[in-house]
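fwd from M.: "can u put these together and see what the complex looks like"

so here's what she sent:
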Amino acid sequence: MALSHLQRLEAEAIHILREAVAETERPVMLYSAGKDSSVLLHLARKAFHPAPPPFPLLHVDTMWKFRDMYALRDRAAAEAGMELIVHRNPEAEARGINPIDHGSSLHTQAWKTDGLKQALDQHGFDAAFGGARRDEERVRAKERIFSFRSAGHRWDPKKQRPELWRLYNARKAKGESFRVFPISNWTELDVWHYVEAEEIEVSSLYFAAPRPVIARGGTILMVDDERLKLRPREQVEERSVRFRTLGCYPLSGAVESAAKTIPELIEEMRRDRMSERQGRLIDRDGAASMERKKREGYF
Amino acid sequence: MEKTLLRFITCGSVDDGKSSLLGRLLYETGSAFEDELALVEGDLSRLVDGLEAEREQGITIDVAYRFFATDKRKFIVADAPGHEQYTRNLVTGASTADLALVLLDARKGVLIQTRRHAFLCRLLGVRRLVLLVNKMDLIGYDQAEYDRFVADFREVAEEFTAIPVSALAGDNVTTRSERTPWYDGPTLLELLETVAPEEDRSAAAPFRLPVQSVSRPDQDFRGFAGLVAAGTVRRGDAVRVMPAATAARVETILVGFDEPDEASAGQSVTLAFDREVDCSRGDVIAAEPLPEVADQFEATLIWMAEEELVPGRQYALKLGTQSALATIQPPKYEIDVTSFEHAAVRTLALNGIGVADLWTDRPLVFAPYRENRELGGFILIDRVTNDTVAAGLIGYALRRSQNIHAQELDVTREARAALKGQQPRLLWFTGLSGAGKSTIANLVEKKLLARGRHSFMLDGDNVRLGLNRDLGFTDADRAENIRRVGETARLMLDAGLIVLAAFISPFRAERRMVRAMLPEGEFMEIFVDVPLAEAERRDPKGLYAKARDGRIPNFTGIGSPYEPPEQPEIRIDTTEMSPEEAAELIVRTVIGQQR
C-alpha cells in the first residue's frame, strides 16, 4: 500500500514534534490562529494522542489581530486541553506602538520580534514550534527543520547544522534554543488539502463573505474595528472578500473572491496563481527584508 | 485526489543549468506564482535563488528545498550546489532522496564534478540515477554527441536513465521534443511521476520501529511512539524489544486518532503491548528476523566540519533514536571521490570521506546502511561545540564485538572495594606543566597511606616511558594517551583502589571521555590552577624555555592551548595555597566521601 503525500507529510511532522519533545527541556508551540497554526495544533494532538500535547501554546499578541482570530484562538486552546500563554510586549504597549502611526516595520519589530524573544526568555522555553513552510519565502527554503538560535535568538544562515535522514541534532548550551518547523516541507496547497481531509477548523476569514472594506494604496483592507481611521475620500463599502494569509488586520490585504469552500478556494488559487505573501504588507519592506528579520530573531 | 510523494536531489556544476531546470519544472507544473514570475523578468533560474550572500556571488551556497506537484505526485527537491562545500551539501540532500538528477552541460560532457556527484549519490544509497544531458539546443540536438556522453557516464554508474534536455528551451522536460526524434524514452516529468519511492520498497522488509518516546496518559495505557523504519506491523504480531530482545505482542496500533489493523514503513505510530515490558527511547521494536546488536563497527565517515577528526576522541553519536558515545579509530583509508582510489591518512578533514572502525559505549541496534538508511546512518556531534561534524554509514559490525562478551566476574568490584574498606576514586590532577600536579599528588598519596587507604599513582611522565612510549604530542596522540590512561585507571578502580593520575590533559573533551568511562561520582577532577606566567617563572624542568625557543612544538600553554575545567570537583589555587595545604584539602574531601 503506497502512502499518499499527505500521509507522508503528516508522519514526518509528527516525528519531528515527538523528536523535539524528547530532546529538549521546555518546548512551546507558537500559535497565531492562522491556518498553519491550526494544522500544527491538529498534528500535535495526533502526535501525542491519547495524551494531550505536553507543552503550552504561546500567542505573541500584537493587539491588532482580527477579532475572529482571537475567538478561534481561545476556542482551539480550550478544545485541545492546553495551557494558552498570551504575551504582549509591555514596552510596545506602554509606547502605544501600532501599525497605523508607526508603520508595519516598527510595529512588527516591537510586537512580534521583540515580543517573541521576551516571551521565550521569560518562560525559559528552549524549543519553539512554528508553522513556517519552506515554500512561503525563498529564504525559508534553506532553513533547517531544527533551526539553531544563539543565546540572543539570532539565526546565522552560514552556520546551520546539516540535517541528514531523520536525524536532528538538538544539542545546545545554556541559553541557546531551537525554532522547530514540523511543516517545513508542506506547501500552501498541501495545507488546504489537509485542512479539508481532516476537517480542521480554520478562521472563517479565509473564505469569501461580504465584509466592510476600504481600498488604500492598492490594497483592500477590512475595517475590523473603529481603530482604523478613515482618511479623506475613503469610504467603507461592503464587498465579498477573503484572505490568503492572516496577520494584523491593517497589514493584511484582502482579495475579492466568491470562494466559500476549500475546493472553490483551491480552484481560485489555481486560476490566479499569486503567491500568498503578496497580501502581506510586512514583506514589502525591501528585497532582503525577510532574511534580515530572520537573523534578528523574527520567526 | 490521492497523490504520492517523491523526494529527489538535483546535482550539477555551477553552470550546468540546474537553476533553470528547477525553475522550468516549477513553472510548467504551475507551481510558480505570477507575482514571483513578474519579479524574475522571465529568467526562470531566478525563481530558485536564495540568501543575500548568494545573490551577490551569483551562486547557491546551501541545500535548499523546493516543491512542485502534478495531479499524480508531490515532489520535494533537495537543490544541492555543485560548488564550495559540495560534498557536505550533496550528502545532506542525497540522504533522503529516492532519486538523483545528475546534470551535465552538453558542451562540456562528463566532468570531474559529474563523477563526484554520481559517486556520492550512490554512496548515500540513492538507487535511481538520471543523467540529464542539458543544453542540447547548444549542440544542435546532436545524437552522436549525446550517445558519447551516455557511454562516458557508464564508466561512473552502471545503472541509470539518460535524457537529452534543454532546460532553457524546455525540450523533454515536461513535453516530448520534436527536435530529438531519435530519443524514444520518457520525458523527465514522466519519469519522475512513475519511479517507486524508497519507503514503498522497505514496506516489505522485516518490521523495525525505533522508539521515540513512551506515552503514559493514565494508568491503563502505555504506548511506544515512533516512525516505522521498515516493514509492516499488524495487530497481534509477536515482536521483540531490542537490544534486550524482550518478547511482547502488539495489542493496539494507533495512527493519530485512528486504530488501524496494520501500519507500515513511513507512518508515525504508537504501539501498545499485551504485557508490561521495559521499553524506552532508543529501543527498537522488531519482528523476526531480529536486527543485529553490536558496539564495534566499520563505517564510512563523511567529515563535515572545519575542525578535523581527532582519532581516539569521543564524539556523541545519533543513530535513529539511539544516542551513544563513540570513539573513532584512526581511519583505515580515505576515498578519493574522483579517482575512487584509497589513500592512507591519519585523519579526515572537511569533505573528506574515509573508512574507520568505531566503538560505542553501549550496544546499538542497527542494520548495514545499504539495507536500511534509518538504522544504518548516523551523525557524529562534537561534545564541546555541539556541531554536527560527520555523517556515518555503517558497513558491518566487527566480528569480535559480536562474539566477545564482557566476561562476567564472580568477584565484583564492590566486593573488592569493600574488602579494602573504601570507595574507589580516580583523582585526576590537571593543569599546566609546572603547576605542581605531581608534587601535590605525591603528598596526597602519602597521607592516604598514613590513613590506611589503598592507592596507586599514575604519573604522566612515567606512563610515557612505558605504556605510551609509542605516542607523540599531536592532538590525536594526546587523546590516545589519555584514553589509555583512563582505561588503565578503570581497571584499577575495578580492583578497588583510589587512583591518582597527574596529567596535563589540556583538552576538555578527553577529560570528559575519562569521566564517562567511570561510574557516576568516581571521577574527581582536580584543577591545579597556576597562571601561565607563574608556571613559566618556576619552570622546574626547563621546558618552557625550550618551548619559547621553538625546540618543543605543541607545548601546552605555548604552542598548544590549555582548556581549563569548567566545573572541577576541586580547584587548587597554587598562588594562595601551599602544596601541603592543597594535599590536606584533597584528602579531607576524599575521606569525607568514604563511608
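replying to her w this: Chain B touches chain A through 76 residues (CB under 8 Å).
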